Amino acid sequence: MTVERLLIPNLGAEEGDDWRPHRREPSVRCVARLWRGIFGPGARWPDEDAGNASDVWPPALGPAPAAPVFEWLDARGDATAWLNTDEAERAAAAAGRSLCGAPPAVVRRVHDKAFSQRAALEAGLVPPALREAVRVFEPAELSDATEAVRRIEASLADWPAPLRHRFTLKPRFGSSGRGRVAGVDGRADTPDVRGALARLAARGGAVLEPWLARRADLSAHLYVEAAGGLRLLGTTEQAVTASGVPVGHRGLVDARGRVSSGTAHDEALREAAAEIGAAAATQGFFGPCGLDAFAFEDGGGAPTLRPVVEFNARFTTGLVALGWVRHALRTLKTRLGLVPGELRAFYFGIDAPAGGWPEAGDRDPHALIPIGWRDDGPRPALLLAESLDALDTLLAPRAARDRIRPPCA
Prior knowledge:
The protein is of the alpha+beta class.
């Protein structure tokens, strides 16, 4: 018997009422369908009939599974939102359902970028060069533009000169880089900054930080149990556009479906995820979540990890990517010979790279799994290869495009 699951696809809901127009964007609808595809048959939106999740299932993966890809997704009779908000809770109640996961008030508290910054400082997870260079602003501190500019420039004056060259103010509640404003050379008294202050105040305040030369964008994906236990679901390396918008995830997977980014930062990233996940649990949070991180160049050009950038107290595209990698585990074993003790590489893209997806025949040492392609939208797919080097070769001329801006990283 198929168990109906009600999903509330409020991608970008941390942006308040502004999230609703995003649902019309093809990329957002695409990610919502990909998300639905990890729940198994019977998953539906509040405004749709049950049984329409099959529109994304790739025939190349064989019969569609009868259960969600992760057992903790099997919340029978309840409703599951991308992000638990008061509005999502009301939508669940209107359908006669309870909302899975932590109460919206708790989610908002730990989803606030200020929470992750303070938790990282307390846990000693902020690189020395950045300990005095990340500043949280409350909404009231941004209400008077002239005074706000003075405060921002006073903070910038304390930074080392190289860090002041480029900086960013980002909303404490936002996604995929939306709403942030950039500055240069320690100057906050610009039309762009002044024009953004009221909007940032309305979005719960802002975080001021340097814009650093990234070497790798990374993420860790977790499930926090109601009793406080943590399940580390995997780590990935994010593919981002030149403007920093995430458009895909890559990594390595073993024969049991365990995923890692394949970078030298994995262990430090896992430890940071455990620390921040535990800190969120002490606040009453439970449910799916993700931690964003990146490696940047220090003064000598060596890579330094900033293990805590943002804590996403919701579903993420990285978690969706992990679900589809698990869906493809049988294909990895039969097509690419994945056996215990070995690893294979994957790239999960929300859309085709600029040069298109590489062709993949039955005799090729790689496989391409199109996922729910439509003529009028993005072409998401899972590319499987023997190694990360092989993956790089396949994707080398196919850089990520800037045109996708899904509010769901």
